[in-house]
Specification:
By secondary structure, the chain is mainly alpha-helical. It contains seven helices and two strands; from the N terminus they run ααββααααα. The two termini are 25 Å apart.
Length: 125
């Protein structure tokens, strides 16, 4: 799920508070702590998918709605109009909350992709 910047900042604040609290936590807080981690990148706090001894080697960042367009535009230019699956495979290793549906919506606004793919053309109507 992609949230707005205010909600994103709220989640960061809540996760940090939950991790520092020493009293017992309700179940929903334990779920949130397992779902999100927080790191500082160039002085800015970012939500990440916790690594916690898993086999993951790369940090995956959650993004908010104001970051999505730039990320999609960059990935789209890197894949050369190759479509939803190629973009999704590229992005899922870095951003767990960018879905195929969001990518398809972005691609439906690309004239080159719409001309190449009749399904996107139908989605545009």
């Amino acid at each position: 799920m992609i949230v707005d910047e205010k909600r994103y900042d709220d989640i960061i604040r809540e996760v940090l508070e939950m991790k520092t609290r020493t009293t017992s936590k309700p179940c929903h807080e334990y779920r949130r702590i397992r779902r999100y981690g927080v790191i500082s990148v160039d002085g800015v706090q970012e939500l990440i998918e916790p690594i916690n001894g898993s086999q993951k080697t790369e940090t995956r960042f959650f993004v908010h709605n104001q970051q999505v367009f730039e990320i999609l535009a960059k990935a789209h230019s890197e894949t050369g109009h190759e479509g939803v699956h190629r973009m999704h495979n590229n992005l899922k290793t870095h951003y767990p909350n960018i879905t195929r549906e969001v990518i398809q919506l972005y691609l439906s606004c690309c004239n080159t992709c719409v001309e190449k793919n009749p399904i996107l053309k139908e989605a545009q109507l």
